Amino acid sequence: MLSGVKIVEIEGLGPAPFAGMMLADLGAEVTVIHRKGKTGAITAPSSLLDRGKRSIALDLKDKDDLRIARALITRADGVIEGFRPGVMERLGLGPEALHEDHPRLVFGRMTGWGQTGPRAQQAGHDLNYIATSGALHYAGLPKDAPVTPATLVGDIGGGALYLVAGMLAGLIKAGRTGQGCVVDAAIVDGSAHMMSLLMALGQGGGLSHERGKSLLDGPHWSRSYLCACGGYISVQALEPQFYAALLQALDLQDDPSMSAQHDARQWPTQTATLTALFASKSRNAWASHFDGSEACVAAVLTPWEAAQEPHMRARATWSEAHGHLQAAPAPRFDGVVPKINPAPLRDANRAEILAELAKD
To answer: How would residue 269 be classed by pLDDT, with cut points 50, 70 and 90?
Structure first.
């Protein structure tokens, strides 16, 4: 889909390389500028997030290497970086400097707090960003500390995916007008924007300021339950027909204490009933029991278990590729078979990249 699009990625951690991986999965030629040597936590000879990319190791504080980096960027359609605001400018690779010679360039900036604001220069991580944006508040059961899947809501959802969307929009604009742009992808902005669907529930009275009392984070029919084996089963029977199917499958359709689906006063008692019931059998037994049901119930699987689940296996969503369990590229397109490309070793493509630059 992005064949012919050239992206330069400045090595970073977390969301920026994920965004680069996704662009590479979509067919872009992504060249990642790795740091020379082993710096901080970036020590692996290769990374799953570099799959499908090319690699050259440069020291951006070295004049000759900086010249190579600039040459790479000036022949690219876009660049993505994940430094704190001002770092690229101090290197002479900020958007203003690059746009002088390359006005079509789409400059993607990935940060937690954004390029502006009181916290722009402050350290932070995924959990801090989604805590500040409001996205963490509803993640968890009443009286439990808020918890959310590591990196998924912040780094990936509110960060990398918004950077990809911004890059694609910028590339479309550049192709149409010849004018590039700067994409300010901040995790606090993206994760707040992701709350829009949940906030829409408030218009109908389905969202409470208090955690555990909203339409999706409090009811007995929208949570995970511990099973006899120690595993968990997920339940989210939101619509009345699915709730009816849940009660039918559990032989609770005639239990008057379970009939009021949306009476929040009864949720604790109803939750206790389902807690005891699901604790009576193993996760796999419940998964088999609900197989083919419209009750909206599914086992909570590890990625390795998910790779063997019939639906996931049929779609080849997870697979062992190049020595690692990996998820296939997404989304999918008609007539295109998702392919997981290998990740290069650091600096593996130096010779071919320098040869290309020598031709220009």
So the answer is: very high
Residue 324 annotated among the catalytic residues of the structure: no
Contact indicator for 107, 89 with CB cutoff of 8 Å: no
What does the angle CA 251 – CA 230 – CA 136 come to, to the nearest 5 degrees? Answer: 90
CA distances from 341 to 1, 10, 18, 77, 113 (A): 15, 20, 14, 22, 32
Q: Phi/psi at 227 (nearest 5 deg)?
A: -105, 175
Catalytic residue among 65, 99, 125, 347: 125
Q: Is 125 an active-site residue?
A: yes
pLDDT greater than 50 at residue 40: no
Identified catalytic residue from 25, 50, 77, 155: 155
Q: Tell me the per-residue pLDDT of 115-146, one tens digit each, with 9 for 90 and over.
A: 999 999 999 999 999 999 999 999 988 888 98
Residue with tokens 């998820």: 327
Q: Which two tokens stand for residue 332?
A: 């999918």
